[in-house]
Each structure stands twice: as C-alpha cells, then as structure tokens.
Amino acid sequence: MKDEAHARIEEEAIIAMLMMRAKALGEKNASDALSYEAEDSVEFSLAPPLVYYGQDEAGLQAWFDTWDGPIGGEVRDARLTAGKDVAFWSGLMRMTGTKTDGTAVDLWFRQTLGLVKQDGRWLVAHQHASVPFAMDGSGRALLDLKP
Fold this sequence. Notes:
It is built from three helices and six strands; from the N terminus they run H-H-E-E-H-E-E-E-E. The termini are far apart. Helix content is about 25%, strand content about 45%. A hairpin with a 4-residue loop joins strand 4 and strand 5 (about 105-120). It has helices at about 1-25, 30-35, 55-65, and strands spanning about 35-45, 50-55, 65-80, 85-100, 105-120, 120-130.
C-alpha cells in the first residue's frame, strides 16, 4: 500500500510538471518552458535538424515568435509509466494556432517524453515528436490524420 501511495504521488508530481510546462509552451515563454527540461536534454522534434542537444532558449523563442497569439493544444491517449527516478510519457498531441503569416495550424502528432528525477524534481530529458508518413514510396508526411 505504501509503494502504491508513493507511486501515485510521483505520478501526480509528473503530471503537474507537464501541465506547467504545457502552459509555458502555450504562452510562448521559452525560459519558463525550458526550466522543466534537463540541461543535457535530447530532442527529436518535428522541425530539422534530426536532433537537438541541450537547451536552446534563443531557438525556441525564435520559433515562438513565428506564432501570432498563444499556441493551443490538446492531449489524447496519454500514458505514464513512472519508476523511482525515471519515467516515460506518451500520447497524441494537437497543436493549434495561427502563424504570423496568417496560416492556421491544426496538427496532430505523436509525442514521447523520457523524464528523470534530479534533485527531487522531475525534468524532461528526452523528447520525440513525429508524424506518420505515406508508405507508398512518396515519403510524404501525413499531416491531416486525426485520432
């Protein structure tokens, strides 16, 4: 029973951290968003290059600056598995909003997060976001899929 109670406390701490991080991302606050990430984090994002190492506040803020207004979001099918100091989260993410050029964004993608507990805090240490691609040989990203 004690282990179950401790596991619930850790899960609640992770979910609270992820919600605060999501709020910072939606509000386009690069500094705050990165405060929930490990300094040596690894990111496989939707945008090039293939991999990012560490934190890039200027780069994240530059991307935020391409949005007019807040970035909206939604999560579906979220799953969390937490251990003592390592956890994994996965789910389907929806990103909505308007770019500064007027383009409306409404994109569903897959995301997996690897989390670590450092100095009593849960932090994102690994991120992977992706969209499926057409298996017909075209290599075309399938950006119109919805859950």
